[in-house]
């Protein structure tokens, strides 16, 4: 009677992960135009590196997970494949978090000490999440040597993976709290489009990411273990999608403010007689 439940859970998890890859591809073409407009033909800096990493490594991570979901690999050793896939997942999510850190840093007037504190806390969170998960995995009861050897290609994750998402939620709550605090401390009466984009867009996107992260924790902690991988790719896809939109929103609002300031300045320029054409290039 247990086997049907396990099979249903694994199959549901596979469907959700493959669907997540489809959503990522669909969203990519929806946001290709703003990507071309706001990131292409711009100089390479840390923001662009983080954006490219978050946006394109998500395809590699989601693709590897989708392949693991649909491929028949019962007699293979999948431990190395799984380790590489997990590493790419982590890099992609960390890059997305990096874009959110840059957004928070901008709201805090690009304070270097503040940025250093955020980066140190991020490093501590990542190290602690990986270390604690590894320790708990090592403390698990060893398998019975006389029992049949289990395949390493089962589409399941351990309960301890919820710990990693717990650290992620804690750090995201920190970023959102710092954003709200700074908004009402220094920018309460500000009508700047850029400030509104940093605050409103950031809080909205962070709330969605936190919600999915909490859902992932609940799935890994409460529901049958066969459902553990259900939100693996959706979590990754949401990070990539929303972090990209944060960047697009910032760039667009920044450009709007520059154009508005330019228009206001132009109203004070003396009339240019004998001038029949003005270049806008």
Q: Outline of this structure?
A:
The chain has 8 helices and no strands. The chain is mostly helical and 281 residues long.
Largest sheet data: none
Count the helices. How many? 8
- Strand content of the residues, in percent? under 5%
Low-confidence spans: 1-5, 267-281
Task: Describe this entry's structure for a reader.
This protein is an all-alpha fold and 281 residues long. The chain has 8 helices and no strands. The chain has helices at residues 2-30, 32-38, 46-70, 79-107, 112-139, 161-186, 193-221, 232-266. Helix 4 (79-107) packs antiparallel against helix 7 (193-221), helix 4 packs parallel to helix 8 (232-266) and helix 6 runs antiparallel to helix 7. It is globular. Mean pLDDT is 79; it is low at 1-5 and 267-281.
Label this structure with key terms.
single chain; 281 residues; disordered N terminus; mainly alpha
SSE map:
Elements: H1 2-30, H2 32-38, H3 46-70, H4 79-107, H5 112-139, H6 161-186, H7 193-221, H8 232-266
């Amino acid at each position: 009677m247990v086997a049907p439940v396990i099979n249903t859970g694994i199959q549901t998890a596979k469907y959700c992960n493959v669907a997540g890859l489809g959503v990522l591809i669909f969203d990519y073409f929806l946001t290709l135009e703003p990507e071309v407009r706001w990131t292409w033909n711009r100089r390479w800096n840390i923001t662009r590196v983080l954006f490219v990493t978050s946006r394109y490594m998500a395809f590699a991570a989601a693709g590897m997970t989708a392949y693991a979901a649909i491929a028949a690999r019962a007699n293979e050793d999948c431990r190395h494949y799984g380790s590489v896939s997990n590493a790419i997942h982590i890099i992609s999510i960390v890059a997305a978090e990096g874009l959110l850190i840059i957004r928070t840093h901008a709201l805090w007037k690009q304070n270097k000490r503040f940025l250093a504190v955020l980066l140190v806390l991020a490093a501590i969170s990542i190290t602690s999440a990986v270390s604690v998960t590894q320790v708990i995995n090592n403390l698990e009861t060893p398998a019975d040597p006389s029992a049949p050897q289990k395949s390493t290609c089962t589409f399941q994750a351990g309960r301890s993976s919820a710990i990693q998402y717990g650290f992620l939620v804690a750090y995201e709550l920190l970023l959102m709290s710092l954003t709200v605090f700074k908004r009402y401390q220094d920018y309460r009466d500000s009508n700047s489009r850029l400030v509104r984009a940093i605050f409103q867009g950031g809080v909205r996107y962070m709330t969605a990411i936190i919600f999915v992260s909490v859902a992932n924790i609940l799935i890994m902690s409460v529901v049958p273990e066969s459902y553990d991988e259900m939100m693996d790719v959706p979590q990754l896809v949401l990070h990539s999608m929303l972090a990209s939109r944060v960047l697009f929103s910032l760039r667009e609002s920044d450009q709007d403010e520059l154009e508005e300031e330019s228009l206001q300045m132009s109203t004070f320029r003396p009339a240019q007689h004998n001038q029949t054409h003005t270049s806008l290039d």
